Amino acid sequence: MGESKMDVGGNGGGLIVVNNKQRAMLPNKSRGEFVRNQRKDSEGFSESPDLEFEYADTDRWSAELSELYSYTEGPEFILNRKCFEEEFRSHVSDNKWTELDPAQRRAHAMRLLDGLEVIAREKRLKVARAILYMAQGTFAECGSEAEVQHWMRYNIFLLLDVGTFTALVELLNMEIDNSAACSSAVRKPAISLADSTDLRVLLNIMYLMVETIQQEDLADPPEWRATRETFKTEMGSPLYNNEPISVMLFGMVTKFCSGHAPHFPMKKVLLLLWKSILFTLGGFEQLQNIKVRKREELHLPPLPEDSIRVIRSMRAASPPASASDLIEQQQKRARREHKSLIKQDNLDAFNEKDPYKSDDPREDEDDNDDNDTSMDTEPFPLERDEVMPPPIPHPPSERVNFPKGLPWAPKVREKDIENFLESSRSKFIGYTLGNDTDTVVGLPRPIHESIRTLKQHKYISIAEIQMAKEEDFQKTPLSGGEEDVEMSSTELLYQGILPSLPQYMIALLKILLAAAPTSKAKTDSINILADVLPEEMPTTVLQSMKLGVDVNRHKEIIVKAISAILLLLLKHFKLNHIYQFEYMAQHLVFANCIPLILKFFNQNIMSYITAKNSISVLDFPHCVVHELPELTAESLEAGDNNQFCWRNLFSCINLLRILNKLTKWKHSRTMMLVVFKSAPILKRALKVKQAMMQLYVLKLLKVQTKYLGRQWRKSNMKTMSAIYQKVRHRLNDDWAYGNADLDARPWDFQAEECALRANIERFNSRRYDKNQSNPDFLPVDNCLQSVLGQRVDLPDDFQMNYDLWLEREVFSKPISWEELLQ
């Protein structure tokens, strides 16, 4: 793929740049740079256990809180406490915060809020630190992490109730527009933690408020629940600066990427942006509920299954064999006497020795079924076609019970039925009927049955209805009437980001590229480490190792936040209106998102998922409640005992889902996967034994299988079998046999994107560009007096040369009054 060729949005790279001072601060080989628990790609993974990972909107609450802070920010916890206690002692006697009655706590919160109004920056920062200490749960008075979390919830609901969030937004706006800080940061040779102190304190409080308030608890009093709903509505509405809070944060991202504000703490901005979108628009459960509701409103049949539950119940498949495993299998085979045909009982006996045989008893029950699709019947991946032919997906008959082992109900599009009927008519009768899917005169009975089966599994998506409606609006702008647009949080957010959406996408991808572990440093790239590097460079090996862990963790959290932001926006826009989704997706494609994600996966993905870039004793709230043990190089090297890193596996799944969203039903983008040689990269990702991740990898392999050639399919029968077993079937999709697709003519690729772009522009212009209404459809004024009475502003140069114009256009031209009067 070419490391140096990667570019986001055509504006140079987005990679990290460090100067000499910062380079000295980063750990190098001699300072103990280390990558823990790495395995080489050539090692076999057949013995690796399934990863006990449950995909969700977010990680555990404590993990999400701890990821807000870099380890270099550790000393600031004590500083926040000191600022709070100074304020507290000056107004309250010797009582502890936890011992005050609610009225006294509220009065003190109001006092602190008034303190944010002072002009002096140092005083304001002290008060902000005191408020941050409250949001952190007044931890000095707590004895356990659970107690800290209890007081966090109490204090944050109190702070929200007295109006702290609005004040913080105003202060944040002031800091964003602080040109002195921006110009000072631009001139500095090395930006460190100290340059973003004010911004970090404000963003910390805002993040803790959003993250805590969105956590629902059954024990919450009714007023807290009402507060949560109100806050959610306010955050999604254009109340702050006439735009939703997310739009303001997007503005910070683009300002940072343009180089005008290199001191912005980008990790915190992205985390707050992610949680704001998640809170205001909703997570994956809410998305499923919205989808069900919208289908009901459009009178569409219910979904065939709940995709979240199906994916959670899936088990991981054994990964495809590595080269060493294949050689070993071939040596074993050479020692055996093979006959041209193997009886079924011999095959079963051989299967017992198959190193990739699944342990699932359900699959053992399936061995005698005609429609067996389990991967167990695969003795040696390279030679499967010599033993038994690959399974052919038979369309189900009248009953809607699906063969055992297939998790998804098959789907068929209206277009697929039309294509099938057209080809059948031209073959048997010699004429076609266009879009008629009901007339079956003259077609043989088996074709009738096929059509009945296809129609039984026909799936009409919300997107198809939306596109048809949009086509009607474009065709009949006058008789179509006014469109009833629901002003949901998603709609308000789209309207907010629409004018600058391409710049926002480029900025996010630039930062993603800079944070990717496969990136190499470039001179013209952005520095994403401004909010992790300390002022003083590390002086010992231990400090250097700690900073190395901190920098890697910082990058992982940025990747996690960006992948979640992009996926949530794509999914919500797709449900809200298909052309909103297509607009965002097209700009991601134009900004090189597809090669960027493939570049991200072009690494040892197992070592990325098992990386241990965290120091659990330094995580909040553990570090403020317990005595810190002495850190040693050995304890840092050992890391924690987790089987995998939750955030890295979450990021990988999100990026694969984004890639699926961008390429689904788009032949030009599918060909990009082929051109960028994604198959070996994706196949390596199958080594991760996690069902959800494997499902999205297999989907990406399925769409390009027909373009990879017969030899690839023959050599990857285990992968083909996994696709058949785990990915939804489209009944007349010939993905496995490489037949040319009607829609996949190479000369149509450019036209496909251009047609899509034209549709998107027409949609945006019709719905959002009120000034550009078509003049042909404006009402005509037929009254002579009112037309002549209209005031027309003439340009200055015309007024200066008015005499010349009269002479040339009026006096010197003969006028036939008779013709004019007729």
From TrEMBL:
Record field: compositional bias (Acidic residues): 361-375
Basic and acidic residues compositional bias, start-end: 30-43, 339-360
One protein family per Pfam: N1221
Keyword field: Cytoplasm, Phosphoprotein
Record carries keyword Cytoplasm: yes
GO biological process, one term: cytoskeleton organization
The keyword Phosphoprotein is assigned to this record: yes
Predominant cellular place of this UniProt entry's protein: cytoplasm
TM spans (from-to): none
InterPro entries for this protein: Far11/STRP (IPR040185), Far11/STRP_C (IPR021819), Far11/STRP_N (IPR012486)
Annotated spans, Disordered: 28-47, 316-402
Compartment(s) of residence: Cytoplasm
GO CC, one annotated term: cytosol
Domain (Far11/STRP C-terminal): residue spans on this chain: 444-802
Domain Far11/STRP N-terminal: residue ranges: 48-346
Family: Belongs to the STRIP family.
Main function: Plays a role in the regulation of cell morphology and cytoskeletal organization. Required in the cortical actin filament dynamics and cell shape. Part of the striatin-interacting phosphatase and kinase (STRIPAK) complexes. STRIPAK complexes have critical roles in protein (de)phosphorylation and are regulators of multiple signaling pathways including Hippo, MAPK, nuclear receptor and cytoskeleton remodeling. Different types of STRIPAK complexes are involved in a variety of biological processes such as cell growth, differentiation, apoptosis, metabolism and immune regulation.
Protein's name in the database: Striatin interacting protein 1
Originating gene: STRIP1
